[in-house]
Amino acid sequence: MNAEQILFIVFGGISLVGAVSVISFRHPIYSALALIVTFFAQAGLFVLLGAHFVAAAQVIVYAGAIMVLFLFVIMLLNLGTLSASGSIVGKLKGVAIVLGLLLAAEGIYIAVNALNETAVASAQPTAAPVTTYQIGELLFSKYLLPFEVTSLILLAALIGVIVLVKRDGPDTD
Amino acid sequence: MPIEINWQLLMPELVIALTLIIVLIFDMFDSISKTILGWLTIVGAGIALWVSIQMQQAGTVGTQFNDMFKVDSFSLFFNIIFLISTILVALISLSYLGKDDRKQGPYYLLILLATLGMMLMAAGNELIVVFLGLELMSLSLYVLAGYFRDNPVSSEAGMKYLLLGAFASAFFLYGIALIYGGAGTTSIPGIASNLTAESQSPLLLGGMFLLIVGFGFKVAIVPFHQWAPDVYEGAPTTIAAFISAGPKAAGFAAFLRIFMEALPAMQSQWGDVIILLAMLTMTVGNVIAIAQTNIKRMLAYSSIAHAGYVLIGLAAANNEGISSVMLYLLVYCVMNIGAFGAVILAKTTDGECLTISDYAGLGFRKPLLGLFMTLMLLSLAGFPPTAGFVGKFYIFKSAVQAGHTWLVIIGAINTAISAFYYLRVVVTMYMREPEEELEFSPYPSTLVVGLILAVIGVLFIGILPSLLLNSVQNSVL
To answer: What ipTM describes this predicted complex?
Structure first.
């Protein structure tokens, strides 16, 4: 067993434990924190696959920005401990089990198929791992226009937020 | 690897981007009167319009950024439509926004950003660019729809538009993802060449239908139109005019580009869907418009019906169809902004006249307003010698040539239905006595100038369509 396999088991294990914790904690803050652990472990898995950029994006976007948003919402709504029986979660338990089984079946189907020789051959990464350097080069050459337009979209969003939330009383500044 | 950029091809977009930056900088200084920002917008859009017309006349063609951005007569013609809409909307906004300095800057910035998004949609030769243009346009419009945030109706309009628009964008993006899965590329010419080579997968079919749903939301085609009346009613009237004009044209531009250039091999699948949607959109839009008492809601349903007429041209899917759609969209933008402008002109001291019964007797008491409104409504209904007639005529002609006679008959019946509710406003203005005396504000001169330009446009295209028609026929994909 080489280092890569050991790391895979470690990260995979942490992400599984984290995912189970997300749904087993009663307090939403604990669930959100467990979700961060899962995201970090998944970022580790992406690094093992050679997708460094995706790993970094996973940490920055999911573990960073989106989780902060989750925590804000939880704190703003002031959610206490959820009881499984009274809330909507309890009522939808049947639906959740069916959907979960469906997802599990899908995963098993893909895993079994991937064990076939042909599937393995096509799933093997043929080229060297895509580095952040290569992605950066693509962004500034082939995908220059979409990259620049994205900055305009951010500008529009920025102006929009200021317009919609800025207080405009007579003497606020 | 350095990339070659031909700046001349990007001139209209660059001019708008530059105007954007100038407006942004001018907005920072408190010492400058903010009413200048509106004029800057008009001048910038005017220069971009002039450049676009020059390029269109010269027949400039070329691609930029690794084929992602395509300048051709088609995209330049749509640029002309967008810029004319932007100039007209900016003109009717100058007086509408009032004297509040804090309201001016972001308003024109967002209008310019939306315009830039529309131009990218028309010139996008890559689904990613089309999507980014769509998002740039939509994000700006969500904010503009809720711009008067002290007014709960306006906030509600912005919120509704944002929620439904976000869903539509998600559908659109999912459609792009599926098409990428089926065709192996997001480049529009690339999809076309991959499609002919291999059989059509269910992935492509699913992606195509999701694209139709996404576009359907953005241009308000019937099963996806519910947002339009609420948003038009709640949004500031100038923005209702803007949303109903340029973005709709941009949606159809990208619709035409993607379906005629990337997916022509699947026409047997999407052709019938478009015909069905055209029938539904025209009929539902026109029939519900009859029941409206609020003029902004009536114009909203009328704009839904007009999207149905445009779909007739799309269903024809021939060169005549494309050129008639382009001509119709230009005509539609001018006359619809004109109609909303006339609504703004009918301003009393308490606010706008929004109920149709408020217009009783206006035709004689306010002759100029009566004249503007009558001309715009006649054009929307499609009476000669207005531009609306020319637009409808060429749309119907292209459909007959393509063999969709039944579609044209339904379109003609719908035109008759629409004449009822447009003429009802005219009849109310000239033949009914007002129930109560309303105090009207004086006409703002910039608004009158904007309306006069719209009237000139409507009559000019209506009387001398041949001048424009040559240019349109040379601009097909």
So the answer is: 0.88
